[in-house]
Amino acid sequence: MARIDVIMPQMGESIAEGTLSKWIKKLGDEVKRDEPIFEISTDKVDAEIPAPSAGVLAEIKVQEGQTVPVQTVVAVIETEKGAAITPSTAARAPASAPPPAPPKASPAPAPAAAPAARPAPASVAAPSPSPAMRPAATAAPGGNGTETADERLRRLSTPLVRKIAAEHNVDIATIPGSGHAGRVTKKDILGYIESGAPAAVPLAPSAPAGPSWPPGAPAATNPAWEATPWEGDRVEPMSRIRQLTAEHMIFSRRTSAHVTSFYEVDFQHIANLRAAHKALYEQRGARLTYLGFIVKAVADNLRRHPVVNAAVRGTSIIYRGQINIGIAVALDWGLIVPVIKRADELSLLGIAKTMADLAERARGKKLKPDEIQNGTFTITNPGVFGSFIGVPIINQPQVAILGVGAIEKRPKVVTLDDGTDVIVPRVTAMLSMTYDHRIVDGADADRYFADVKKMLESYPEAAV
Questions:
Q1: What are the boundaries of each domain within the chain?
Q2: What number does CATH give the domain 258-463?
């Protein structure tokens, strides 16, 4: 008889923790290898996690709603059916016993995952579960029993770093961390101080406290600015994914110097190619979409412009050897970013099939952890909802993200062979690219963007 640990997987690059949102199997149930046994929720994805081995679910260590660090053992599987279930194990069963009594002190709600690669936000329809209680050993609540993103950054740094910060009156939350999960290292803070950065200015006394912010949500900078519910309003707690998305969008804006360029692209040529080859692609089990062409153009040109396919680590630039394109997928409960690995090595047909497969499994919560990790560039497509164009926020730790506006017929000035200008209907769209001005200059971004536009407007039919 063997005992197999079931661990909390890492569901995204630099993700430090996950919330166990639902047990699919109950204590004592038989499970098959790769059969889903529980669901987890992070700011990137809601996903079903498969069993690492066949056997019996003999012990449940983490309850529904709890947030724990990655690699934490959440359950134990016995490989033989006769495995005994001890009373202490049964007491932790989510379906057969009441939850443990709360401690005398107020329980600390689960803090958000450490700031890292984060997709653009989307509306979340599902209501949030009640705040999860963290183990006492890992909780570090603030004065009101909640932990803000800034408090979390301080807690994740070492005592030495916190001591240096206190001696120099530096707010750790203002320093981009190069350590695991965004932690501020000794090198980070010493480099920050040596650079002559100003010390943190003590905040003026805050106004009288208003209504408390929802547990686990991003803390307001000033309680006086918090919204107050009026008569007739409906107040709902943020879902877990909404809380985390809010934290990480703020983190991304605070980390990167966001600049956005816009290009109008004429898609008439691609519209003609789609009309000519659409039926053939359907016979091959794929849809020939505008987005497929865009992914191909984005991927093929990144190799020629490596600074757009990079990441920042402290004072160093990491030029990624792989070209992995993340595609934002809107779901009822949020937005996730499956990743097409080595997209530059795929044909247009291969990209079309991969996109369809990832999108379908994302909606069914069937994505594997490695399928939402290690993206190097992201594409978001608000145009499918009719938006003319959007200005997306960078998906950390990447340095660029492309936004696709609505692709539709618009009047366009065209110059004929004889030099005459005429206004004709053409299929066009506005594309935007937000990039990190810390390492990507405007000239670099526009040269890359111009090459993408050129490829889309003159895509070779032989490559379809």
A1: 3-90, 149-249, 258-463
A2: 3.30.559.10
| Residues 440 and 401: beta-carbon distance below 8 Å | no
Sign of CA pseudo-dihedral 57, 62, 66, 72: negative
Count how many residues are written for the chain: 464
What amino acid positions are annotated as catalytic residues? 437, 441
pLDDT in tens, 238-293: 877 777 778 888 999 999 999 999 999 999 999 999 999 999 999 999 999 999 99
- Rounded to two decimals, what is the model's pTM? 0.60
Other Cβ atoms less than 10 A from the Cβ of 419: the count is 6
Residue 182 gets the label, from left (phi > 0), alpha (psi -120 to 50) or beta, of: left
Secondary structure letter of residue 105 according to DSSP = S
- Scanning the structure block, which residue is given the tokens 């709890």? 66
For the CA atoms of 109, 242, 440, 346, the dihedral, rounded to the nearest 10 degrees, stands at 120
Helix, strand, coil: what percent of the chain each, to 5?
A: 30, 20, 50
Q: Which CATH architecture has domain 3-90?
A: Beta Barrel (2.40)
- Tell me which residue of 238, 200, 242, 221 sits closest to 148, measured CA to CA: 221
**Rounded to 5 degrees, what angle do the CA atoms 358, 119, 155 make?**
125
Strands of the sheet containing 46-50, edge to edge, are: 46-50, 36-41, 17-23, 67-69
The larger pLDDT score, comparing residue 134 to residue 48, is at: 48
Please say whether the beta carbons of 303 and 344 come within 8 A: yes
Asked whether the domain spanning 258-463 has the same topology as the one spanning 3-90, the reply is no
List beta partners, residue 318: 311
Fold classification of 149-249 is Dihydrolipoamide Transferase (4.10.320)
Phi, psi of 19 (to 5 degrees): -105, 125
Looking at this protein, which amino acid is placed at residue 390? G
Exposed, middle or buried: residue 155 (CB in 10 Å: 0-12, 13-18, 19+)? middle
Surface-to-core class of residue 208, CB atoms within 10 Å of its CB (0-12 exposed, 13-18 middle, 19+ buried): exposed
Segment among 309-318, 366-375, 425-434, 443-452 with least mean pLDDT: 366-375
CB 318 within 8 A of CB 369: no
